[in-house]
Amino acid sequence: MAQISPARKVAFQILMAVERGHSHSDDLLRGKAVNALSAPDRNLVTALVLGVLRWQIQLDHQIRALLARPNTKLDTEILIALRLGAFQLLHMDRIPARAVLSESVELAKQSGHSFASGMVNAVLRKLAKAPPFHFLEGSIEDLALAQAHPSWLVERWINFYGLEAARAICRHGQSQPVLTVRLASPADEAELRAAGIVFEPGQLLTVARTVVTGDVTTTEAFHEGRVRLQDEGSQLVAELASCVSDNLNQEEKSVLDACAAPGGKTLILAERNPQARIVAMESSAPRLELLRTRLAPHAGRIECRLADATMLTEDSAFDLVLADVPCSGTGTLGRNPEIRHRLSPNDLVRHAERQRAILTAALRAVRPSGLVVYSTCSLEPEENEQVVAAVLATIPNAHQLSLSARIDALLGTGILTNDGAERLHARLTPEGMLRLLPGAFRTDGFYIALIEKTA
User: Fold this and answer.
1) CATH number, domain 232-453, options 3.40.930.10, 3.10.450.120, 1.10.4080.10, 3.40.50.150
2) How far apart are the first and last CA of the chain?
3) pTM for this structure?
């Protein structure tokens, strides 16, 4: 029996679980099976899993063109073996074709499909010998196939943001997101540099650094929580929320993070508001336990509460509410590539209904003159400006504020870089909301709006 490398075997298992909807790739890539591997094998598993998921639409197109009957329904195990093999042949030129073919055939056999192993071998041999194919990007369908995104999403982005922005969004979704860290102090940066970590400055925040080389997760600073991995756009959401709370003249501010897990934004709220009482809410019990563990150093003033933000009963109880709501996640397709395969237009309607309920509850929970920051990592208007507009139409004592003054305040306190502030001002909508499109910065896509309750 031919051998299958540990990395390819684990990658196959993860892709099977994702295909069957059992879990998310991000969770599985941090699981026990991956952690048990050597560092090189962990890197290979990550590259294989995310690569296959990013290019799956295009891989399936090329695979089916080589089948004797292109419309044949393939067993899931065979389809995953073919995708893994095709991705390595087309996108990982350092791996010998003979090794790819041998292990792909063996994956088919060991998954109980020996009868199909000859077909797997024949398709991948044809693919290995075929000349490189250059995909065009002229029409919506061409761009969608060239960048391996669903046509319906690409069409939406072109309609909302224009062709060039849609291309940039798609290309960002096909690339590995940059690794960004948040530094607590200059001493921590010096410590990481001494450990061999090479950085570049963040594009927006003075405390953010982009990792060029090195493994931050092996350092003492990371394990002690002094250095955290967090997308720079995600950090910006919390910084804008923290900044607006500075306007509230309360001896002890009361802050609610309505959808807090995994807790990165909550930690920034705590850092920037050292006197505030903070409630971190989460509707999932397992996620709440992880959140409670992460926030343990601040347990004296952060209450972790198991609750659904749509069922929030407090009335005028908080000075600030951060409603970073659950969403489709279309701004994170580079980081969470399987979203594109699971999402449908009906999901946007479902998300928007819940988002309106959370924002309505947040505005009820905030005090007069208090503020709500509403944010998503979605690119879809149904989850963003349409949610804000629909809720404000039903609440006469609330109105939207421009984030322009908040950007200036973050610049004035040295939290934003000069270039970052200038570029953020350019990204404000006419209503003063902020939209970060993937490809415009080295961040995921985000939408941020600021709302004041007037009475």
Assistant:
1) 3.40.50.150
2) 74
3) 0.94
